[in-house]
């Protein structure tokens, strides 16, 4: 790791990349302490371009779920790559992966593949519109569903017409969803995340009554219920994140952790929507690359064999309990929200995120990579030892924060 540094790479990137970096991985959005460039990952750890090591509590913003460079996933991908990746048609592994998804996910009778979460959410809405002949889609206010013009949180480069068919409701508020449906008129789909994970806000678990209510509302409207499981999928329940409520969607969008960092996404759907899905012209030159499909198959098999969600729940509970004890001992009132596998911590009354930014920066200096305004992610590689190593760093960070701010 000689010949470059984070600073030199930023300087070079500024000359050849607009802004030097863009999108959600732009370190300029996170605070001055955050490195921009990384060179290696192993298990639950990452190393930045300056050689600093971190316990990775972001899991590369979600994709890593069974450990960086997991040997079984890497072997499956390498074996497929040796035979061929981007060919004149998909490899047999596409069929095997689709069969695995249909076998695993109760709401899935078929699967279609693409490359990232935005592909999947957009493709799901296309299926819903093809099935219903309608335009309008109900979405929760502030929810993130990707970066296409219809859903990107930034409006630069978009037109009002590209947003005209989305009607918003308040998450966990069934009356609001019903009012949005009445306003929209002809509704093609209700698109909803398994829990509220909007950036800069405490996370909010879905209420069972809300989940069942939007299912009933979609049925009453003749609309498709679409679960955006891109962020939560594979961490909460391998069968689908609302399976615990007894709520099965018509369509589900998957990506993020599906292949442990290899680029792939999927839409799974009910048999009634197979015909409409078949009518789409939705494709990409790299959508059927076999290597990522082999990695996905290996990743999902590992998660099923090891009960991956339970392992991540154990790790998340250990982390949450440790952070709660540390915050109390240093005199801070904190909120820990969301599922323990997809956690976030905020400081009570910290509306400007000043404390959160300072604490996150202190965590970085102590070798723990987490985030001040975006939810974190855990993986099956976060063993007790890794969680305890992270807690050593977060404890030191709380001490630094108390020295700067005093206790609450």
Biggest beta sheet summary: 7 strands, mixed
Runs in which pLDDT lies below 50 for 5 or more consecutive residues are: none
N-to-C SSE string, H for helix and E for strand: HEEEHHEHEHEHEEEHEEEHHHEEHEH
Tell me, briefly, the overall form: globular
Q: Estimate what percentage of residues fall within beta strands.
A: 5-15%
Helix percent band: 25-40%
Strand arrangement, largest sheet?
4-12-11-10-7-5-6
The total count of strands amounts to: 15
Structural class, from helix and strand content? alpha/beta
Helix count, per DSSP? 12
What's the overall average pLDDT, rounded?
A: 97
- In angstroms, what is the radius of gyration? 21 Å
End-to-end separation? 43 Å
Explain how this protein is built.
The chain has 12 helices and 15 strands. The relative contact order is 0.15. The strands form 4 sheets. Strands 4-12-11-10-7-5-6 form a 7-stranded mixed sheet, sandwiched between helices. Strands 1-2-3-15 form a 4-stranded mixed sheet. A two-stranded antiparallel sheet has the order 8-9. Helix content is 39%, strand content 15%. Helix 10 (308-329) runs parallel beside helix 12. The protein is of the alpha/beta class and 408 residues long. The mean pLDDT is 97. A hairpin with a 4-residue loop joins strand 2 and strand 3.
């Amino acid at each position: 790791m000689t010949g470059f540094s984070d600073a030199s790479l930023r300087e070079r990137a500024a000359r050849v990349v607009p802004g030097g970096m863009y999108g959600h991985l732009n370190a300029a959005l996170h605070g001055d302490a955050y490195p921009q460039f990384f060179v290696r990952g192993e298990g639950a750890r990452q190393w930045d371009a300056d050689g600093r090591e971190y316990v990775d509590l972001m899991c590369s913003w979600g994709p890593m779920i069974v450990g960086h460079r997991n040997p079984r996933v890497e072997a499956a991908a390498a074996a497929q790559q040796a035979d061929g990746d981007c060919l004149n048609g998909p490899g047999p592994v596409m069929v095997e992966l689709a069969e695995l998804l249909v076998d695993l996910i109760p709401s899935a009778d078929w699967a279609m593949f693409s490359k990232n979460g935005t592909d999947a959410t957009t493709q799901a809405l296309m299926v819903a519109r093809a099935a219903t002949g309608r335009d309008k889609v109900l979405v929760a206010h502030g929810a993130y569903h990707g970066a296409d013009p219809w859903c990107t949180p930034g409006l630069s480069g978009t037109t009002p017409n590209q947003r005209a068919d989305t009607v918003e409701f308040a998450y966990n508020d069934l009356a609001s969803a019903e009012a949005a449906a009445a306003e929209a008129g002809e509704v093609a789909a209700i698109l909803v995340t398994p829990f509220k994970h909007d950036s800069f806000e405490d996370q909010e678990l879905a209420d069972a009554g809300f989940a069942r209510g939007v299912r009933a509302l979609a049925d009453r409207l003749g609309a498709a219920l679409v679960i955006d499981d891109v962020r939560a999928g594979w961490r909460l329940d391998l069968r689908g994140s609302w399976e615990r409520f007894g709520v099965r969607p018509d369509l589900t969008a998957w990506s993020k952790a599906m292949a442990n960092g290899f680029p792939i996404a999927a839409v799974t759907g009910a048999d009634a929507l197979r015909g409409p899905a078949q009518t789409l012209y939705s494709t990409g030159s790299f959508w059927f690359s076999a290597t990522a499909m082999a990695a996905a198959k290996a990743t999902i098999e590992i998660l099923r064999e090891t009960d991956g969600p339970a392992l991540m729940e154990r790790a998340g509970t250990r982390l949450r309990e440790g952070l709660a004890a540390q915050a109390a001992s240093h005199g801070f009132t904190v909120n820990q929200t969301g599922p323990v596998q997809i956690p976030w911590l905020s400081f009570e009354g910290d509306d400007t995120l000043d404390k959160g930014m300072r604490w996150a920066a202190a965590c970085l200096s102590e070798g723990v990579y987490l985030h001040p305004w975006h939810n974190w992610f855990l993986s099956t590689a976060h063993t007790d030892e890794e969680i305890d190593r992270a807690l050593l760093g977060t404890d030191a960070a709380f001490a630094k924060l108390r020295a700067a701010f005093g206790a609450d």
